[in-house]
Amino acid sequence: MPTVLALETSCDESAAAIVRDRTVLASAIASQVEEHARWGGVVPEIASRRHLEALPALIEQVVVASGVGLDAVDAIAATVAPGLVGALLVGSVTARTLARLHDRPFLGVHHLEAHLASAQLDPEPLHGEYLVLLVSGGHTELVRVDGPGRYRRLGRSHDDAAGECFDKVARLLGLGYPGGPAIEAMARGGDPQAFPLPKGRVSLPEGGFHPYDFSFSGLKTAMLRRIEALRESGEGLPLADLAASFEQVVAEVLVERSCRCAADQGLNTLVLVGGVAANRRLRQLLAERAERQGLGWRVAPLAWCTDNAAMVGVAACQRLDSGCRSPIALGVAPRLPLGDAGCLYDSQPCF
Ligand code: KG4
Ligand code: ZN
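That is the input. Now the predicted structure with zinc ion docked in place:
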């Protein structure tokens, strides 16, 4: 069972963890959310600087808490794709420097592969083939997993990611950043049926609609129009009803298309991961619909939905088990698709 030190710095959470196979020995996260909240979103330059300041203490913290020294780990890993280029570089350079100093192998990890691996942070391992709904601030994807490193994307958003839509709508409602938790809190006590909202669909060139793809831009515009009309009428905004209606339609659209995709693919397990997977309404609806359809389901543990280094460690352990190592000169790739994750372990990476 390999033991790995893993770092995560792809966006606005600085994180370190020591993971043994699928067990988290220690994990530490320094969130920059408050700092970016002033600007209404992540400022890349600030993110890089904060990662640089936070990482040494986080690494020290997980080494002390786990009792595993850096000479005792089997490898040192960091997220190297996709994400903010400067932010990724901080984690990657730190991990590669430590790997050199302690003479350990280095593994670059794909951030989406790490989110997929977060579902393995459960007493029961996931085996065989399954469908993953990956919903984060940057991605909304339906991924068929046929084994470690074997992924096929079956659905995606054509515009905003689900988390991005939560963030933008929260801003329209004046609820602050990050929008997901703010909308979830406001939706409590609201009526999810108060406002009918569109379930954006993606047209196919040959007619009809794509069965598994998503579009959230129309929903965002519908929310904007609704808010403007309510403001013009001079009444105060019914924030709880607006938040609950929005949360409900996003959850329905995600769950309906995922369940249909799993059924069409003959897959009997549906897995929910990523920052938006922290949403309770989404978790609940997925469980209800999957059970009604006789589909097995799993959601990533709440603590490992939003960005963290434990999931990077699990992904690295899986790759290590398959004999993968990254070249020490590996760069970072801000836009590498998940399907190309394997190239992080080639002597000549594809980017
Ligand atoms: O996975 P993540 O931490 O970072 C990325 O890889 O993007 O996801 C962050 C996203 C943000 O858009 C945030 O608003 C959303 O996840 N999020 C939520 C909740 N918690 C975080 N969305 C809905 N409900 C939540 N409880
Ligand atoms: Zn993420």
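The radius of gyration is 20 Å.
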